[in-house]
Amino acid sequence: MSNQLNKKILFLGPAGSGKGTQSTRLAKKYNLAHISTGDLIRSEIKSGSDLGNKVKSIVEAGQLVSDDIVNEIVKNNVSNLSGFILDGYPRTLDQAKFFDSFAKFDSVLDLEVPNELLFDRLSGRRMCSKTNKPDCSGVFHLSLNPPKVEGKCDLCGSDLYQRKDDTKDAIEKRLAGYQNETGKPLNDFYGVMVTKIDGNQDADKVFAEIESKLLAQV
Ligand code: AMP
Q1: How far apart (Å, rounded) are the C-alpha atoms in residues 49 and 188?
Q2: Is 3.30.70.2470 the CATH number for 8-114+168-217?
Q3: Which residue has its alpha carbon closest to ligand 1 atom 19?
Q4: How does pLDDT run across 91-150, given as a tens digit for each residue?
Q5: Which tens digits make up the pLDDT trace of 40-72?
Q6: End-to-end CA distance of the chain
């Protein structure tokens, strides 16, 4: 299929805004690479690599990994790609400046969801234990999107688990830091490039809004 979308797309939005779900869907439909720094970091942790062991406790506490580490991971993963969707990076002004030194986004989307809804979405979230694409991208919610069989992934049948940073204390930390460290500075940095998306609607409607706004930019 010919790709009608701008090729380097950034998804901004707090944890629980749906950027993982929406960017995965968009990447599939338009044949773009989906780079989620959260997924990459979790797979380092799962593999038990030196890097994974170094960042494990930081990630599980809901804090940000240092800019140097994430910058390097992203540069290694996007350097050879002409089109991609970045989900979860840049997350600080310094990361945005670093990225800008070697690549430029064509579109920046900002998924907006009221804070009180984010807490419910995150605390009920359950992930497939085979998570980390391309193995499986199953993500469920105890009440909003329950799996057909309790505790099992609809897509591959593996056990579901709750991310350690989806617990109450870690969620509070992640949401509190988002506006100061990411939301405000990056909206200021990307300025008129930012396209706002209403993330407080049915997932299909969010996707339709994303598509129509991106296609209008081509
Ligand atoms: P996410 O899946 O995007 O919510 O990311 C999970 C965790 O990975 C975050 O809470 C951070 O600990 C870490 N992480 C992911 N992306 C970044 C980033 N761009 N900068 C710093 N830490 C990150």
Answers
A1: 36
A2: no
A3: 89
A4: 999 999 999 999 999 999 999 999 889 999 999 999 998 865 557 778 899 998 999 999
A5: 998 889 889 999 999 999 998 888 999 999 999
A6: 16
Cα dihedral 92, 173, 66, 81 sign: negative
**Which residue of the set 8, 19, 42, 121 is catalytic?**
19
Burial class (CB in 10 A: 0-12, 13-18, 19+), 151: exposed
Residue 121 is a catalytic residue = no
For a pocket test of ligand 1, which of 37, 70, 171, 175 has the largest count of ligand atoms closer than 8 A to its C-beta? 37
CA of 5 to the centre of ligand 1 (A): 26
Q: Which two tokens stand for residue 4?
A: 């009608």
Closest to 41 in 3D by CA, of 93, 77, 17: 77
Measured in angstroms, how far is the CA atom of residue 216 from the centroid of ligand 1?
30
Q: How far is the CA of 37 from the centre of ligand 1 (A)?
A: 6
> Two tokens at 8?
């380097």
- The SS3 of residue 200 is coil
Claim: this prediction has a pTM higher than 0.70: yes
Residue 43 has φ and ψ, to the nearest 5°, of -75, -30
Q: Ligand 1: which atom is nearest the Cα of residue 59?
A: 12
